[in-house]
Amino acid sequence: MDHFPLSWGRPRNEAVDLYSTYPVHERQRHGQQHDAFTQGVQHTQQPIVTGTSVLALKYKDGIMMAADCLASYGSLARFKDISRLHAVGQYTLIGAGGDMSDFQYLQHLLNDLMIDEYTSDDGHKLGPDEIYHYLSQVMYGRRTKMNPLWNSLLVGGFKDGQSFMGYVDLLGTTYTASTLASGYGAYIAQPLLRKAVEGRETTLTEEEARVIIQECMKVLFYRDARSLNKYQIATVTERGVQINDAISSETEWAFAEKIRGYGAQTQ
Amino acid sequence: MRISTIEGGHSSDRGDRSLSLCFRSTRVHLRGLHTRTPVERCTDEHHLHFSLFSAYTQPNRCLAMALMQPLLADAQLRPVGHQFNPYSENGGTILAIAGADFAVIAGDTRQTEGYSIQTRYAPKVFKLTDRAVLAVNGFQADCSEFVKRVLQRIEWYRHAHSKQMPLKAIARMIQTMLYGKRFFPYYTYNILGGIEEDGTGAVYSFDPVGSYEREACRAAGAASSLIQPFLDNQIYFKNQTPAPGAAPFVPGNLPIDVVLPIVIDSFTSATERHIEVGDGLEIFIVLAKGRDASQLSSLNATEIPAADPTGERVFVVRRDLKKD
User: Fold this and answer.
1) Nearest-angstrom CA–CA distance, B44 and B24
2) Digit-coded pLDDT (tens) for B180-238
3) Among A9, A167, B14, B98, which residue has the fewest nearby CB atoms (within 10 Å)?
4) How much of chain A is helix, strand and coil, in % rounded to 5?
5) What is this model's ipTM?
6) What domains does chain B contain, in order, with CATH numbers?
7) A236 in helix, strand or coil?
8) Which whole-number Å values give the CA distances from A5 to A9, A18, A31, in the listed order?
9) A44 counts as catalytic
10) Measured between beta carbons, which residues in chain A are less than 8 angstroms from residue B140?
11) Per the UniProt entry, what is one GO biological process (chain B) (predicted)?
12) C-alpha B195: how far from its chain's center?
């Protein structure tokens, strides 16, 4: 006998388990398989509130990462005091471009993961490598469901004397390198970073690294129309993760007045 | 829901409506139905509504309507913008050549997306067992997922049978795993190389949905169209004729000191002519039981220690390719 009044008087079908052949916990759903609400659920087809580039490089003592504080709504500079750098535990830092609400979801996911790890109290701590693989599985799993988290993420960290830097994006594509740049920075900043860093990963000092990152952020602010001259620089070293307060670069726009040929001028 | 979709496509503006009607009849023509449909005959909203309703109550009259439904839904339901594409292509090239008692499996280490170099070192060639090496190329996320699963299945096999999985079994397993995702394929080109149970060198090549065959050589990936014809000539002796009186050519019997320069030259040439190839070269060499390795010393080959020494040996050679 079916105990669900809602399924009484309806035609029999595969989805209805009239004689309770399944244990209660895996009972088939009764009634219509697809209700109006699930049909209305939409997958992310495009990002809405977005962050632009994130940069990262390796240096002597660890890794350095930078991202500006802007979350855009299309071409509107909507939120100008957003932190796109996020510490995960004491060894790892992630920086996100793309959809900011998806990034916040990931922050919650990672927070839950770290709580689970903490409560297991097994003497192991998740390092940057583990976080990177975790994120890549989450991102690849979501792309396979055709419901991606619309982000490109940089993962950086320092644990057991080893620095780590990796990239994960909405397709689940991953790679590691000694300089990383997501979004527009992949075109504008990556060549500058490679020129300054490749081959010098173990000798570059923190001051030198900071100068390189600041220069790249300035160039990005000049050229990327979705960027903001207010950015955070973070480091991960033996001393742990340090996300600094937002800073600005000195910029010079006087030359712009003399430029003719594009822009708003009429003559 | 479909009815409301079509209604939703109509504003009160008359011009707007005739435009979309025109659009519909075009679609019907595309389908090869050259009769005027009920939709075309309607001129005002009320009649339109009636005829759409009749599409559901009188299906025989309105076959054309039913045919149009998916197209209409396509054109009007979906928001402007493109659908999410779950695939990408990450460049690079792989290649493998079999000898009588060895196999060579190689790949470059550049990873690209579009015109950008993502990294200069992303390995594409993986040691699976002490006598099998797999090269994967295509969409990086699918590649690493696939290799991860292959390695796991190989480990399970070892636990279940207390021996390493034989090469031909790995090949068939890869076929099954690829075909298992026939309708949402792994976008990966696989080349498996190694030593068979009878001690011969072997190369198996696969397409993304699992078709496979054993061959003497194969190139895949971004520069496959540059390298494969070269291998056809050098390994399969295509368009070559033996000297008068000389023995006929037999593919798959070249000595290793001929094969390795062919591999290296293939990659340096592909690097010159293909922008997605370069940065580094990894060559894996699998030698059959008892075969001497002295010919590898000049290449600075390092041996990868066997997990379960049975005689076969795996070496790897790492070289630079141009980074520009």
Assistant:
1) 15
2) 999 999 999 999 999 999 999 999 999 999 999 999 999 999 999 999 999 999 999 99
3) A9
4) 30, 25, 40
5) 0.82
6) 93-321 (3.60.20.10)
7) strand
8) 9, 12, 10
9) yes
10) 173-175
11) proteolysis involved in protein catabolic process
12) 24
- Half-sphere exposure of residue A128, counting CA atoms within 13 Å on the CB side? 30
Q: Which domains does chain A have, with CATH numbers?
A: 49-247 (3.60.20.10)
Integer Cα distance of B149 and B151 in angstroms: 5
Distance from CA of A146 to the nearest CA of B (A): 7
Beta-sheet strands, E only, within chain B: 93-98, 102-108, 111-113, 116-119, 125-129, 132-138, 188-195, 201-206, 212-215, 217-221, 280-287, 302-304, 313-320
| Among B82, B109, B118, the residue to mutate for chain A (most A Cβ within 10 A) | B118
Q: Number of A:B CB contacts under 8 A? A: 51
User: Which H or E run contains B45?
Assistant: helix B45-57
Tokens of B318: 């790492």
Question: Residue A169's closest chain B neighbor by CA?
Answer: B141
What is the DSSP code (8-state) at residue B208?
A: T
Nearest C-alpha neighbor of A182 from the set A165, A200, A204, A206: A165
